[in-house]
Amino acid sequence: MDFGLTLPQGAQRDLQRDVIKVATEAEEAGFAGLWAYERRLFPLHPADGAYGVEGLAWDEYYSYCADPLTVLALAGAVTRRVRLGTSVLIAPLHDRLYPSRALTTLDQASGGRVTAGLGAGWSTDEFAASGRDFARCRAAGSGPRSSSSVSPTRCCAWTPPWSTRPCRSWRVTCTRPSAGSSGWSTPTRSRWRR
After folding, report:
1. pLDDT category, 162, cuts 50, 70, 90?
2. By the 8 A CB rule, do 38 and 86 touch?
3. What span, in angstroms and rounded, lies between the C-alpha atoms of 106 and 73?
4. Number of other CB atoms surrounding residue 115 within 10 Å
């Protein structure tokens, strides 16, 4: 069994000091992973309860949540072995290519240590703030939108040689990742969990 820790992301934290401290101490202690989650906003008058449970108050901890990939990049810069994971990125709130590009960049920069956790989301307020129709995503079963966010990543980003095959919900031809670096010598295959 492996154990991991959630990295500090809240307003009550000094991100630079606390993320570096937790990341380095967790790696020294032998933890297997460091995790960061996504919360887009903290509604003052939520349309729904926390985690989609009617009447359940949102935890004050969510009142500020630093970007998970930025937090993981900071942790990755000061560690060498521990895995870096999202628990979770809310896939329907991102355009289709964002998760692919950002996760590929983080994976390459960290030496292949990224585990991507993607979720369908539960906060109608977050969907509205992101210009997404929560009811429409739910009517479609949420899965299709989440799957379409993952398709470019699975079909292209971690599949050397760079993909020329079409994906189910995306037509992808002659692609390779463009993450702002000048050539990638050793593409890695990350673990996916849904």
Report:
1. very low
2. yes
3. 6
4. 19
Is the Cα dihedral 175, 156, 149, 95 positive or negative?
A: negative
Q: Rounded to an integer, what distance in angstroms lies between the CA atom of residue 51 and that of residue 55?
A: 10
Span 43-68, pLDDT tens digits: 999 999 999 899 999 988 888 899 99
Give the domain ranges of the chain.
Answer: 4-135
The CATH number of the structural domain formed by 4-135 is 3.20.20.30
> Can you tell me the mean pLDDT for 8-36?
94
What is the model's pTM?
Answer: 0.76
What is the pLDDT confidence band of residue 184, given thresholds at 50, 70 and 90?
very low
Query: Looking only at Cα atoms, what is the longest distance across the chain?
Result: 51
State mean pLDDT over 30-53: 93
